[in-house]
Amino acid sequence: MLKVTYKINNMFSLRKFGDSHLCARSYEYPMLTTIRGALLGSLIQRKGIKFAEDNFNSIAKVPIYIQIPKNFVINETKLRMLSNNYLTNSNNGSIATTVGIREYIVMDKLVFYIDDTGLDFLREVLVNIDRIGSSDSMVEIESMELVDFMENILVEWTEDIGFDYKIYELYDWSDKTKFENRYIYSNKASDKNIKRNCYIKEKVKIA
Question: Which residues, 6 or more positions from 67, have their beta carbon under 8 angstroms from its beta carbon?
């Protein structure tokens, strides 16, 4: 398993289960959707559209595990955002807003693990990535190393595991996703994703 570390200069918020829908998704801690999107965009840049389309399933199905940082600084910011009924009110010349407090985590690195088996182009693609998520979520590669175990990763939660865990929402591409659904210039582009409830597993040995 390849451990990938990026330097970052942005604040993120962890998407815990039950969080308000008013959380600005562009600043959420990177999801599998945004990591796969960054991989696909970088692959198109480095290898071209045809190569990216031919190898799309390699990106769409490659196992990726996101590490949640053990230590981070919490910062709270007051936000003024549009409420759900803003479209109706805007027709009458007024816009309703709401104010909420958002919890950010401040850190200097982003880490995830990815299975590089059979992906000869992967390292070149990872080095080329300069953002994961919105245009504000800039990243710079720091290191890549093969490891025998993973630490503090998000793993899918089920009820038989128990309820003594913090649950996080993790979004990923649907198994039926095709290249035409993820290529932003396609007329069939779609952002439909699947949601998994996850918990943090402190250490996982790689078989």
Answer: 111, 112, 113, 150, 151, 152, 153
Dihedral sign computed on CA atoms, order 26, 196, 72, 35: negative
* Tokens encoding 111: 């880490």
Which domain CATH number covers 40? 3.30.70.3120
CA angle 58, 64, 66 (to 5 degrees): 155
**Cα dihedral 191, 196, 199, 205 sign:** negative
Residues 168 and 114 in one domain: yes
Q: 């793993």: which residue's tokens?
A: 155
Q: State the Cα–Cα distance between residues 170 and 35, nearest whole angstrom.
A: 12
Residues 45, 134: one domain?
A: yes
Of residues 23, 9, 44, the one with CA closest to residue 171 = 23
pLDDT one-digit tens code per residue, 28-76 = 677 899 999 999 999 999 999 999 999 999 999 999 999 988 876 777 6
Q: Domain check: are 125 and 30 in the same one?
A: yes
Number of domains in the chain: 2
- Asked if residue 130 and residue 188 are part of one domain, the reply reads yes
Please state, in angstroms and rounded to a whole number, the distance separating the CA atoms of residues 158 and 156: 7
- The answer to whether residue 104 scores a pLDDT higher than 60 is yes
Task: List the domain range (segments joined by +) for residue 80.
Answer: 73-105
